[in-house]
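Customer escalation, tier 2.

The customer says the design service returned an amino acid string that "doesn't look like it belongs to this structure." They asked us to rerun it and document both sides in this ticket. The original structure tokens are below, unchanged.
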């Protein structure tokens, strides 16, 4: 019998490794995926749109959501707060949609605790030097923020062994293809169960 419930995919990896880039490329190639837009207290970057890239909320609203248990997971990441609204995710999964969360390691492990069926995918940089180059080229952080993101990258990489899959984002095209294969295989396997 076909499994009507959607699959929950969680993508993590160090800041600047290319999670957002890979996710956008994957969405161009695969139909039927829904991106869960997170809440954050971070200030929008140039070009980021409220409700599309993030739901940009203030600290007071974020903490009210925490108190009201509205988050499936939440964490302080690189000095700002981020969280995934639980009602959105559960409703979409119940309706049969496959969901993609792009969240940090702390959040991913909270999700796995609450929903062990979630599929955790870690995006790995080809090297530390390349990660620094990518963050530098993106140019969205000041020197202090950049340093914090690089320091955190080392801790995050240590947690990658807790993930179901690891994809190295060296060549972008190859990494997207690998990601697509993982998504297809997981969905086929779940459909058979
Ligand atoms: N395979 C790749 N080769 C070279 N550059 C890449 C590759 N993948 C992504 N990039 C570039 O690296 C930079 C960081 O990518 P991106 O913003 O997608 O990272 P991220 O992991 O989503 O970061 P964050 O967690 O901070 O949001 C971007 O400028 C992007 O164009
Ligand atoms: N635990 C969560 N982490 C999240 C969420 N949304 C994004 N993130 C992670 O934060 C960092 C920094 O993102 P940036 O956009 O400021 O560069 C990155 O690792 C994201 O994956 C979330 O809802 N929960």
């Amino acid at each position: 019998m076909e499994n009507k419930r959607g699959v929950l995919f969680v993508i993590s990896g160090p800041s600047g490794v290319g999670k957002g880039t890979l996710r956008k490329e994957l969405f161009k190639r695969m139909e039927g995926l829904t991106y869960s837009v997170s809440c954050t207290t971070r200030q929008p970057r140039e070009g980021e749109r409220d409700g599309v890239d993030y739901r940009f909320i203030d600290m007071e609203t974020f903490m009210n959501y925490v108190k009201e248990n509205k988050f499936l997971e939440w964490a302080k990441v690189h000095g700002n707060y981020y969280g995934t609204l639980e009602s959105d995710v559960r409703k979409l999964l119940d309706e049969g949609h496959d969901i993609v969360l792009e969240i940090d390691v702390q959040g991913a492990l909270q999700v796995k605790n609450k929903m062990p069926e979630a599929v955790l995918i870690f995006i790995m940089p080809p090297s530390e030097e390349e990660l620094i180059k990518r963050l530098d080229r993106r140019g969205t952080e000041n020197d202090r923020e950049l340093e914090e993101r690089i320091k955190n990258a080392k801790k995050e990489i240590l947690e990658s062994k807790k993930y179901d899959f690891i994809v190295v984002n060296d060549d972008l095209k190859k990494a997207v293809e690998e990601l697509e294969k993982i998504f297809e295989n997981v969905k086929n396997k779940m459909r058979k169960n």
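Tier 2 assessment: The sequence is consistent with the input. The chain has a mean pLDDT of 95. The radius of gyration is 16 Å. Sent an explanation to the customer and offered a walkthrough call.
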